[in-house]
Amino acid sequence: MSEQPRTLYDKLWQSHIVEKQDGANCLIYIDRQIIHEVTSPQAFEGLRTAGRGLAHPEAMLAVPDHNVPTSADRATAINAEDSQIQLDALEKNCTDFGVEYIPMMDVRQGIVHIVGPEQGFTLPGMTIVCGDSHTSTHGAFGALAFGIGTSEVEHVMATQTLILTRQKNMRIDVDGTLGAGVTAKDIALAIIGKIGTAGGTGYVIEFTGSAIRDLSMEGRMTLCNMSIEAGARSGLVAPDQVTYDYVMGRPKAPKGGAFEQAVSYWKTLPTDEGAAYDKEIFLKAEDIAPQVTWGTSPENVLPITGVVPNPADLPDGDRKRAMMRALDYMGLEPGTKLQDVTIERVFIGSCTNGRIEDIRAVAEVVKGRKVHSAVDAWVVPGSGLVKLQAEEEGLDQILIDAGFDWREPGCSLCLAMNADKLGPQERCASTSNRNFEGRQGPKGRTHLMSPAMAAAAALTGHLTDIREL
Amino acid sequence: MDKFTRLSAVAAPLPMANIDTDMIIPQNHLKTIKRTGLGIYAFSNIRYHDDGSEREDFILNQPAYRKAEILITGENFGCGSSREHAPWALKDFGIKCIIAPSFADIFHGNCFKNGLLPIILPQAIIDQLLDDAGRGANAIITVDLEAQEISGPDGGTVSFEIDPYRRHCLLEGLDDIGLTLEKKKIIGDFENTKRLSQPWLFKD
Ligand code: SF4
Questions:
Q1: Which helix (H) or strand (E) holds B189?
Q2: CB contacts, 8 Å: A150 with chain B
């Protein structure tokens, strides 16, 4: 059969088509679903009401993350009653329906998108869904992974499939070598700055180029994590030796001969030579400086050497109004040097940057130094295993000695659903992924950046160019 | 699921781009295990003052628009999280149709699962509809899904495109889980083939 060259996405899509339906829709097989306490209760409720069961409970994994306390006394911490109801509901639903559940006090507990890869639950070539938009993270393995709403969670629970429309192919190529102090997070923010938060809508983005190949799995996960912030439900990096090395030996990964067999399949996945993309964007790694956001959308981003933009430079219209509103919310004056913006809080964590490599980067910056006296700085590891590993490497002590609060794993200040919140007008250097109004607490102000940049800000008390520290 | 066939209602203009799901329903109201009752929290950060009183400058608080069932808004509506609480909150508030130049993908899909109709139209037509909607309670807009047509208060009509499957499900009020379960046999066949070619994906 003479085959058309296909992209990685084409292969993932075609290999999961159960049935072509009317119009552009297909019934797509879903290999794995991860669930957490916030977006699953209504799905289980729907199944119960309809008298339906789970198609494949063994293809699911549950872990609480959004609501859990991250204080040292988490086991007994008085959780808001409504949070406790969601946690109890998740546990009960998993027991009733036979789903593997990782409880809060288990060392493997953590943020869904950190736990899946860590456990080897996430593998190349799969379709993976979760009721959470940052499911795009798992695309770093060359898996088709995307966030879904609760009705779709229920659809997958009952049928192991989803009705989906094929997306278009976009390729974002980053060639060259990143400068010192520049990370995967800066690539992600620079891309969003370039294409905007709706730039990827309707596309699956495949990241290619030497700068991407040079990234670790952690870096690739950071990048794919943020593809939803560029409007794309899924980001992809083709699997390679870095991927196989990461997967090998993980608890739920195939072992021995099965692993070999899997790798030979995974090797067929990368995009064929000559395959066509609907859209291509090219960046040079050398052109990317450390990035920070100044506004209330991830696309409000600039190199740290920049100044707060001026709405007067824009023509009248939606964009100008949005910029005025963002600057007002953020309490920033046009023309202010970004490096002169002082901060009171630092949050290092989230499914974007809560992995071991991120914590290592922070420890390297702050080792032997002190957090600025006006700054309250937190590190929230992405999972219990990340925390354990950091402690084995002595990183916790470096961070504690510098004045950081070393906390228990969870989503925490990324979305402020538990007790972890910014106060009104408090300004935070954050390694998370969204700077929307109120995201880290009502009227809180978020500046997104890499872990190294957030660490530098913790030390100086203002936004800081890590390259000059 | 509720059917959507034809709707004649007040339309509220909300001409802002990138209205995100945190704005549609903030995180502190996601701690529910129900789908209903979220309407009072819709847009709460821009709808209420800190003391809980209503902000007069927010469109849906104004007398003419309190019963609006159509929302005319800016590009990339619903960006951000996958939370279905966003359409649940809008629906519970009484919104049945949202018209915008573009939507974020996940939100767009979530609307259909809840009997809400998201309509995509070019900015020039949106501008016209915003003008119509600006006339308040006197400006009833009619959305006819069967005919794929919107008519304004002055009788002018515009047509819109929609995926045929989703249109069919909305018109009939169909639950697509039930429809998919009828395909158990082909899903099972697919699984059996996959079990042979990628055995590592299966536990047994
Ligand atoms: S860390 Fe933040 S973005 Fe990631 S899953 Fe949790 S709340 Fe969502």
A1: helix B184-197
A2: 35, 84
